[in-house]
Amino acid sequence: MANKLPHERLRDWADRGDAPSNYPSYFMIKDMFPGITHPDKYTERDAFRKLADEVEDAIESARVEGTYEYFDMIAAEQGWPKRKADEVVEDYVKRCFLLRPMFEDDEPAQPGDVFESPIGIQERIDYFSVFDWGYRIECGKDGRAWLDLMRGDRLKRPALKVLDADGVPIEVGDTVWLIRLPDSIKEHIGERLTVEAVTYGCVRVRTESGSVLFPRNHQLTHREPDSIRKLRDDMTMYRADMTEEGSILDVELGEWTDRLTAIMERGAE
Length: 269
What we know:
Elements lengths: L5 H11 L7 H9 L8 H38 L10 H8 L5 E2 L10 E3 L5 E3 L2 E4 L3 E5 L7 E5 L3 E2 L6 E2 L5 E2 L4 E4 L14 E6 L4 E4 L5 E2 L6 E2 L6 H14 L6 H18 L4
Parallel strand pairs: 1-7
Antiparallel strand pairs: 2-3, 3-11, 4-5, 5-6, 8-9, 10-11, 10-14, 11-12, 12-13
Helix pairs in contact: 1-2, 2-3, 5-6
């Protein structure tokens, strides 16, 4: 009787309770508390509580077993390694799949995610390596920026806000342009720059040619600034898109772009 499931035992007590002299609960109490010869209402309550606990345990066991069966079915369909006997899914995933660094909210980090480093710099994950002790997260395409994270440590979500010259927040991955520059990097005015890292007051950007600059946040803008270079480039693009080759306008545009190039080369941009 003890090996039967709760619903099987309930049916058995109901069938034995067909006799006029006894209620089904009498047989339930006798089976659950065989040492009691004179059960009373308190014993009956204890029997119902005990049966409720058994039903609850049976439901939980069925839920867990069903979850594992469903997971094993998916693993077989996908060709994944088999789960070991009595191995919980969490241990299976850790054993068979690539471990990833985690954020503070327990979300796994992915390449392309942005985090805040221990010194307050916003970095983008380019890729990471897994070691016995933890992870090495590389943030610069040239390998110049990286962070070692011990197993169990967590990455911090970006919290700081750094504003450009127009008061717009600068975030990793943004396209920005330089303004108010020192002469040493003046040649990059008008060039599209990609934000690679952000910290208070200073931003790491990569130029179109691949070089890395560290301008102040107030030297950057999200608005593409107008310039002689941009005017020259727009005219060149317009000329290339013209369908009437050899027209007077085409010749004039060519002369104008050459004049603008000469002006720029003299440093009068």
